[in-house]
Amino acid sequence: MNLNKLAWRNIWRRRRRTMITAFSIGFGVMLAVTFTGSGDYTYTNMIDTGASMGMGHVTVEPVGYHLKPTLDKRLRKVDAMRERIAAMDGVSDATVRITGQAMFASARKSVGGAFIAVDPAFEREGNNLLLRSIVEGSIFSDRAERGIVIGSRLAQKLKVRIGKKIVFTTTDANGEIVSDIARITGIFTTGIDMVDGIMALLPIASVQKTLNYAPDEATLIAVLIRDQRHAEAMRDAVAGLPEASDAAVLTWKKSQPDLAGVIAFDKAGNYISQFLVGLLIAVGILNTMLMSVLERTREFGVMMAVGMAPGTLFRLVMVESFWLSIVGLILGVIITAPWYYYLYSTGIDFSGAFGNDFSYGGVLVDPVFKARLFKESVMAILGGLFTLALLAGIYPAWRAGSEPPVESLKTI
Amino acid sequence: MLIAFFLSVLLGAFIMSAALAVHGDESNQDRTTTILRAVDDLWRGDSSYAVVTMQVKTEHYTRSMRMEGWSKGKEKTLFRVLEPLREKGTMTLKSGNHIYTYLPKTDRTIRLTSGMMMGSWMGSHLTNDDLVKEARLEEDYDATIGFEGMRDGHDIIEFTLIPKPDAPVVWGRLMLTILADSYTPVLEHYFDEDMELARTFTFTDMKMLGGRERPAVLRVVPADKPGEYTEFIYETLELNIDVDDAMFSTQSLKRR
Amino acid sequence: MRILTLASRNVRRNWHRSLVTMLAMAFACGIMIFFSSLMEGMMLGSEHSVVSMNMGDIQIHAHGYRDDPDLYTRIDDADELIVALEAHGYRAASRIYAYGLLAANMASSGVQLRGVDLAHEEQVTELFKHVDKGAWLDENDGNGVVLGKKLAGTLGVGLDDELVFVGQSSDGYMANDLFRVRGILKSVSDGIDRMGVFMPMQTLRDMMVIPDGAHEIAVIRTDRTGDLAEETAWVEALAPNLEVKSWKQLMPVVARMIETADVQIMIMLVIFYIAVATVVLNAMLMNVFERIHEFGIMKALGVSPTQLVLLVFSETLILALVASLAGLVSGWWISDYYEVHGIDMSALAGSITFGGIAFDPVWYGAVTADALIYPVAFLLIVAGIAVIYPAIKAALIIPVKAIYYR
C-alpha cells in the first residue's frame, strides 16, 4: 500500500479545512520573510554604513588602542600591510587612517572635536561616509597639503567657510602639544548632529608630520569587505598575516559595540516574535490534524481490525502532516513572492514618518522599509516552519494508532 | 613680563626674519630691521623679574590680582600669585610648549592639555595658547612698514604683520603702532581672516622701569565686548637678573 | 426549546471535538496576550528609558542656555517654580552645571560637572539606581563624585581614586578642588558617559560660587497618561520668561524613532491577530461544517432554521467564553511572570544605544488592560463571525442533503 498516496488523498477529503490550514502556514511564511528580510536588509545597511564611518568591517589597530585611544599608539609599516590586505580575497577596500581628538580654533571660537586623517587617493564614497556627505566644496586633493573637511555644524560654531583657515591643536606621539593650520576645502552634512559638530578630515601625510609620526605609521587600517557576514573569517585571515603580528585585529562587533548591541537586540526581538507566531500556527495545525484524526476514529478502528499495525497508522498521519506542510509552504511561497519582490525593489517609504536622519546604534538608518533575504535565511524559514508543522502532527499521529479498535468501532 | 612677551620676542624676532628677507627693497628692509631692533632693545634681556597687577573686568565680574614673575630666555617663565589671599601661591610655569599650573588649595600640579589651550589664563582675556605662542612669533609672521607719519598728533610708525602660509595662528593680520622717536609701542591690533578686528592691545603710562622709560600699562580689549578689558600694570621690572634654570621645573612648584 | 441547554449538551456530547477546538482557541488567546504584553512592554520601556533615566518629561531652562551653556545663564527662582510644580502633582528637581578639566594620575579630560539636588532628584529620575560600581551620591560626602562610564575608562580611575578639578568660577577665579570616586555609572547617554561628573549640589555651588539659581529643572509627571503637549503648555504658562520643552521637542530624533518603533509594533500585532484569526476561523468552521449531518437530523426532527442559527451561535459562545477564560488566565499568568522578570537580552546585547541614549537590555512585558482585553474581545468577535456562514448554511440546507453532506 502506498502510504504517501493514501495520505495525500486523505488530506484532500476535507478540502476547505486543508486549504485554511495551508493558508495559515503560508501566512507564517509571509510574516517570517517580511521581518527577517527587512531585518537582514536593515542590518546589512547599518553594518556597511557603520563600517564606512571610520573603522571598516575589520579594523587593524595597535594593541590596547580600543581601551584607551591615545595618539601615542600607532601601527608601523602600514603601507606594506595595506597593500597586502587590499589584495586579499573578499576585500573591497583597505584604507590607512589616523584618528584622534583635537581642538579646532578660529579667530572667533574654539571647539573640541575629533579628526580622521586619510589619503584622498584611497578614499571613496563607498568607504567613507563623511566624503559621501560632502555638501559644499570637495575633499583635499593631496595627502600632504594643508586642507581640511569639516562638519557643517562645526563650521557654524567656528564661524568659518570654505577657504578660511582653522588651527587644530592636539597631542603628538611623544605627548607634546602640537598645532597646525589647515584651510577648509569642503563641508559635509551627515545628518547626525554629533558627527557634523565635531568631526573633520585631514590629509594623512600632513598629520603624520604634525604628530611626529614616521611616514609609514598610522593609527589603523580600516578594511571593508564585500559581504559583511564574512567579517569574522576576514579578521582571522588578516590576523594571520605576518605584518599584522603585533597588531590587534577586530571586527566591527568589537570596534562598534553599540551597533552590535542594537542589532543583536533587534534580532532577538524578531526571533522571539516569529517564534510566537510559529507556535500559534503549530497550534492551528495541531487543531486541524487532531480533528481529522478524531473524526476518523471509526475508520482507523476498522483499518486496525483488518490488520493495519498501529505504527503504520502513526506513519500515515505523520505523512498527512507532511503533505499538509508542503502544501502550506508552496502556498506560502506563492503568496509571498510578489510581496517580497515589491519589498525588494520598491519598499515602503517611511521617510515621511521619521525623516532621513536618525541614528540607531550610532549609525544612520535608511528610512525605506526594504527586504533582502540571504539564502541561509530562506532555508531557515522554510525549514523552521516545516519542522513545526511536523512536530504538531506527532500527537495526533500517536492518537491515531493508540485507540484500540474495539473502542473506536463503538463510535458512530 | 607680559609686555616683554608680546613685544620683545615679537619684535626681536623680526630682526631675524627681516635679516633673512629677500633683498627686493633693500633699503626699506634694512630700516625696518633697525627700527624693530631698537624697539626690541627696550625689552630685551636674557632674564627678568617683574611684579605686575592684573585687573580684569567682564560682564560678570571685576577682579584684581597681583603677581610676581620670572623669565629666562624665550622659553621659560614662572608666575606666582601674591594677592588676593584666595589665590595666593597659585603658580603658572611655562617651559617650551608646556604649561603647568600649581594649585595651592589642593596642593596639586596640573599640566594643561590641548583642550585647555584656548581657555582663558587666570580668568583674563588672554588664553593659555597666547602664552605658548609668544615664543614662536618669529617663525610665524612677516613684517613690513605700512605707514609712517603723523596720526592724532603723534609721529608714529605702523607695522603690518602677515602670518606665513604655514603658520598655525588663527589671525589674519596684526598691526603694531610705535612712536617714531622713542620706539615705544602704542597700539597692537589683531584681525581675523576676514580682516575684522578681534582684539586690541594698548600701551600707556610711560614710567621709569628697569632703568628706562617704558609703558607700564598693557590693556587688552576684545572687539566683540568693548566694555570688557584686561589690564596689566607693571610695578617693578628688573632685567638680566640672576636666575637659576632649576626654578623653571615642576619640582620647584611644590617647594615654594 | 431551551437553546442554551441544548447548546451546552451538544458541546458536552462532542466532547473531544469541543475540547480540541477550545484548546486551540485558548492557546491562541493566551499567546496573543503574552505577545501583546511584550509589545506594550517594549513601547513603555523605550519611553521609560529616555524619560526616567535623566531627561524627565519636561525640562525648563533660561533662554539661550541650550545653545550656549554659560555659567551665568540661569533660572533665578528655581525653588519657587519647583514648589508650584509639585503643588500641581508633578515632581521636579533643579540642576546646576559647570565645565572644566578633570585630572587623575596621568590622564585628564574635559568634563561637565553636574550638581544634583539629592532629595528631589531621587523622585524625578532613576539615575541613582543605575550605579555600576560603588555607590550613588551622599549629602554627607561632599567630595565623593560619581563618574560616567566612559570617562572613568579614559581617566583610568576606579573607586576611591583621587581626582583634581580645575575650572573658572563665576567670579573669575580659578576654581579647583580634590574629589574622590564614589561611584561609576552604567551606560546612560553619550554625553553623560563621556563627560558626566555628578556631585551634591552644595559642593558645586560652593566651588563655582553660584549661591542660587539653577541651570535646568527636570519635571516628571506622576500620571503618565495625559497629553504631553498640553501639559508642556501648562508649565510654560507657569514660567513665562523661561524656555519650557518636552522631551519629544528636546530629542526629536529619539521621539520619532520610538513612534516608528510603535508603528512597527502595531504592524506586528495586526499580523499576529490575523494569524490568530485563521486559527480561530479554522477551528470554528470545522466545528460547524463537520456536524452538518447532525444538524440535518435536528432539522428533520423539527428544529426551525432560526433556532438552528441561534443554537450554533450559542455553542460558539460557550466554546469561545471558556476558551477565552482559559486563555486569559494562562496569558495573564505568563505575562505577569515576564513583567517581573523580563527577558534578559544582555547576554546578547550588552549596551544598546538609540540616538545617543542607552536602553535597558532587559525586555519587560507590561500587563496592561489593552494587552488583556483586546485579545479576548478579538477572539469572541472572530469566532462569532466565523460561524455566520456555516450556521446559515446549516439552517437552510434540506435535511436529506444534510444527512448525506460530505
Structure description:
The complex is a heterotrimer of chains A (412), B (256) and C (406). Chain A is an alpha+beta fold and 412 residues long. Chain A has two domains: 3-48 and 260-408, no CATH class; 64-245, no CATH class. Chain A has 15 helices and 14 strands. The model of chain B is unreliable at 8-24 (pLDDT under 50). Chain B has one domain (2-255): Lipoprotein localisation LolA/LolB/LppX (outer membrane lipoprotein receptor (LolB), chain A, Clam). Chain C folds into two domains: 3-52 and 255-403, no CATH class; 58-223, no CATH class. Chain C has helices spanning 3-13, 15-55, 78-87, 118-124, 149-155, 190-195, 201-208, 228-238, 247-250, 252-289, 292-300, 305-341, 346-349, 369-386, 388-396, 399-403; strands spanning 58-62, 90-104, 107-116, 131-134, 144-147, 162-168, 174-185, 196-200, 216-221, 242-246, 343-344, 352-354, 357-359, 362-363. In chain C, α12 runs antiparallel to α15 (388-396). The A-B interface holds A 101-103, 105-108, 110, 112, 146, 164-167, 169-171, 176-181 and B 97-98, 112-115, 117-118, 129, 132, 166-172, 190-194, 198.
List keywords for this structure.
heterotrimer; A: 412 residues; alpha+beta; 2 domains; six-stranded mixed β-barrel; two-stranded antiparallel sheet; 14 strands; C: 406 residues; 55% helix
User: What's the arrangement of strands in the largest beta sheet of chain C?
Assistant: 2-3-8-5-7-6
Which two chains form the greatest contact, residue counts included? A-C, 51 and 54 residues
Approximately how much helix is present in the residues of chain B? 10-25%
Unreliable segments of chain C (pLDDT under 50, ≥5 consecutive)?
A: none
Ends apart, CA distance between termini of chain C: 28 Å
Instruction: Calculate the mean pLDDT score of chain C and round it.
Output: 84
> What is the CATH superfamily label of chain B?
Lipoprotein localisation LolA/LolB/LppX
Here the CATH topology of chain B equals outer membrane lipoprotein receptor (LolB), chain A
Give the termini distance of chain B in whole angstroms. 20 Å
Give the tally of β-strands of chain B: 13
State the share of residues found in helices of chain C, binned by percent.
Answer: 55-70%
Overall 3D form of chain B: globular
- Which class of secondary structure composition applies to the elements of chain B? alpha+beta
- Share of β-strand residues of chain C: 15-25%
Uncertain stretches of chain B? 8-24
Strand residue percentage of chain B: 35-45%
Q: How are the strands of the largest sheet of chain B arranged? A: 6-5-4-3-2-1-13-12-11-10-9-8-7
CATH C-level class of chain B? Mainly Beta
So what's the oligomer here?
Answer: heterotrimer
Instruction: Give the domain tally of chain C.
Output: 2
